[in-house]
Amino acid sequence: MHLHILGACGTFMGGVALLARALGHRVTGSDAHVYPPMSSQLEAAGIGLFDGYEADHLEPAPDLVVVGNAMKRGIPVVEAMLDRGLPYVSGPQWLREHLLGGRWVLAVAGTHGKTTTASMLAWVLEAAGLDPGFLIGGVPIDFGQSARLGSSPFFVVEADEYDTAFFDKRSKFVHYGPRTLILNNLEFDHADIFDDLAMIQRQFHHLVRTVPGRGLIIHPSSDAALAEVLAMGCWTPCETFGDGGDWSARLSVPDGSCFRVHWRDRELGEVQWDQTGRHNVRNALAVLAAAHHAGVSPEVGIEALSRFRGVRRRMERRGEVAGVTLYDDFAHHPTAIALTLDGLRRRVGPQRIVAILEPRSNTMRLGVHNRDLGAALAAADRVHLYAPADLGWDGAAVLAGLDDRLSVADQVETIIARVVAERRDGDQVLIMSNGGFQGIHERLLAALRDSASALDATRPS
């Protein structure tokens, strides 16, 4: 069968494309935003990509068009699909109908931490010899790919609350039918499709309704928004994680890179890993609970987490040049920004943290989180805000509380030049964006190398 994927380079739809190819289908795709790591995965799998969304991308006609949720009426390829009467389906519906039926689905939902937690869970199941399938909205370093079929009944899916398609406005996750469900946390987000937190809570309750009575729901011991969701009705056993929960942790070091795991009153072992932040400790506890539900002993899970290498673009260390260490992170919500900076601060101590932020998500560009943004960035010693002309709000005014720590620029080149000019030995540069950010990561590393080389050339021999 020939499948054509609309929005093929998105993190979710790209995973759908890879899974369809692994099932033996001929797969092509269209997208207007092509950048690694997803584009590299698709090309390596032999998936042909078209740039843009033109009607002739559907010639010859595919057997099925799989439509991503970024597609809207009026886009030429969408109009051609409808005019020609081609069969079409959303990505989540295709996944449920062609892959998830009959499998033990372990879903990870929540406002923050879905990608990292799903990656941890897939890795723990892998370490236990279960060969899980997975579809994750990022690339786990331990696997090198964001999706695979797996040979066992177990399938891990990152369960996003964003809407399914232009013709199906339910959240994606209602399609997955999980037996094991992690609910990481819940805050207001996606202001472009949700009016308030209550609308999101209603979608989360739709998800709760799909978990069987013999399944398991894993949630934080204290999250008021999720407690309200579960109070709407819950027909599934629950386990909790975090302080006072069924699964808890005692930090051995402040940055969370070493902690002891407890199941109620019993100590199970110690995780020593390369991850940082109390949020990742909580993610790990949820993973141990979910893996245990699937039959993995906590001891095996703890050992596997100690070898977990992380996820690309989630506090990924991209390089060190001239005494400057550069990280790439996906944080695009004040809570995630604050947690990421807190974890880095606890690791590097007094070393200077330089934060570079691109407000790229729809919610950030709408200014919904502006009231909380300054406080979220407060742990940084220097903040560079990318504020293009079409941002829609005044970055200098919104972040005025940062005083002289703030620099606002409407060009990436300006940010790079300022970071290089202000460079100090030991700087920890954290770049935060949920997009490609015009390749700033490699461009900044190259500029730092050039600056260091020029400085060396001026020194007397």
Automatic annotation (TrEMBL):
InterPro entries named among the record's database cross-references: Mpl, Mur-like_cat_sf, Mur_ligase_C, Mur_ligase_C_dom_sf, Mur_ligase_cen, Mur_ligase_N, MurCDEF_pg_biosynth
Cross-referenced Gene3D superfamilies: Mur ligase, C-terminal domain (3.90.190.20), Mur-like, catalytic domain (3.40.1190.10), NAD(P)-binding Rossmann-like Domain (3.40.50.720)
Ranges for domain Mur ligase central: 108-291
Coiled coil (residue ranges): none
UniProt catalytic activity: UDP-N-acetyl-alpha-D-muramate + L-alanyl-gamma-D-glutamyl-meso-2,6-diaminopimelate + ATP = UDP-N-acetyl-alpha-D-muramoyl-L-alanyl-gamma-D-glutamyl-meso-2,6-diaminopimelate + ADP + phosphate + H(+)
Mur ligase N-terminal catalytic domain location: 2-99
Keyword Cell cycle: yes
Binding site for ATP: 110-116
Annotated metabolic or biological route of this protein: Cell wall biogenesis; peptidoglycan recycling
UniProt-listed Pfam families: Mur_ligase, Mur_ligase_C, Mur_ligase_M
Enzyme class at the top of the EC tree: ligase
Function: Reutilizes the intact tripeptide L-alanyl-gamma-D-glutamyl-meso-diaminopimelate by linking it to UDP-N-acetylmuramate.
NCBIfam families referenced in this protein's UniProt entry, alphabetically: mpl
Protein name: UDP-N-acetylmuramate--L-alanyl-gamma-D-glutamyl-meso-2,6-diaminoheptandioate ligase
Source organism per UniProt: Thioalkalicoccus limnaeus
